[in-house]
Write a structure and sequence with these properties.
The chain has nine helices and eight strands. The chain has 292 residues and is α+β, with helices and mostly antiparallel strands. The protein starts with 5 loop residues before the first helix and ends in a 7-residue tail after the last helix.
Length: 292
């Protein structure tokens, strides 16, 4: 062991006495070896323990956590629980607006790249089923021809039981136009145009126990669900199939066209979807083109 000068031992002893911690160390010894032992002893007492390095297993777990998305979008309106959707509808995103379509929660699976809250929507896409399908013993079929057969070609748009879709209904303004979209059929697509003739009001079917969309948890003094009235405007000059719109959407995702963020493909399961002016105009322009 290397010899340590006596004056250094005395200095260490003085430090220990001044600090007032631990036992008193004698300074009378002049032995280098005893000084070295004192130093080693004191070093052990005052040295702070080293922090352990994180294990590889923990590191991998942390990486896995980062890869896990913060939220998941439900595959269908029915698969998303009421509680989860209600929380989304009551927590507005950052921004000054507190109503309407600007309030939906941004998700990590959105293709808008964080620009969704800045987009202005003024048109809509309404999905309805043109083919017969029984739901709790009731046929939910309603095509654009059924709308045309209604008095004054007007009806209420009821049965929406998804919080985000409901919020879109509540954001609709009088006179705004929407595409009537045939869904859940052999060939889905846009078939016509309707307009909003009455803004959102309580959906009466939520209180009807015989209706397939009855909701026992909803109260008349504070109804959960809303509907609007729509009126037939015209048929599109030709049927615009989903496959054709999707082809343009994929092309626009690559070159930055107007359909790059169209909700028909980013939130495809929603029955009520907003459209920008550019999206509406582009899809409508397809009626002038020959079908591919």
């Amino acid at each position: 062991m290397q010899a340590v000068p006596d004056f250094f031992c005395i200095t260490v002893t003085h430090f220990r006495l001044q600090s007032g911690g631990g036992r008193r160390v004698s300074s009378s010894s002049s032995s280098s070896s005893s000084c070295a032992e004192v130093l080693l002893s004191e070093e052990k007492r005052i040295r702070r323990p080293e922090m352990p390095w994180p294990s590889r297993k923990r590191d991998k777990g942390a990486v896995a956590d980062k890869k896990e998305p913060d939220a998941k979008i439900a595959k269908t309106e029915e698969e998303t629980s009421d509680k989860e959707e209600e929380e989304k509808s009551t927590k507005p995103p950052a921004g000054s607006s507190k109503s309407g379509w600007k309030n939906w929660k941004k998700t990590k699976e959105s293709d808008s790249g964080g620009e969704e809250s800045k987009i202005k929507y003024c048109h809509w896409l309404l999905k309805s089923e043109p083919e017969s399908r029984l739901e709790k013993g009731v046929d939910v079929k309603f095509s654009i021809d059924d709308l045309k057969a209604q008095p004054n070609q007007t009806t209420f748009w009821d049965g929406v039981r998804n919080y985000q879709a409901r919020n879109f209904l509540r954001a609709m303004k009088l006179g705004q136009q929407a595409f009537f979209y045939h869904s859940n059929c052999k060939e889905p697509g846009v078939v016509g145009i309707v307009k909003i003739v009455k803004e959102a009001y309580p959906d009466h079917t939520q209180f009807d126990q015989k209706d397939p969309h009855y909701d026992s948890s909803s109260r008349k003094e504070n109804p959960k669900w809303s509907m609007v009235d729509v009126q037939f405007v015209r048929m599109t000059k030709r049927f615009i199939p989903l496959s054709e719109i999707k082809a343009h959407h994929l092309a626009h995702k690559a070159d930055g066209g107007p359909l790059k963020n169209m909700m028909l493909f980013t939130r495809q399961r929603l029955s009520i979807q907003p459209l920008t002016q550019e999206e509406f105009d582009f899809v409508l322009s397809l009626e002038e083109e020959k079908p591919h």
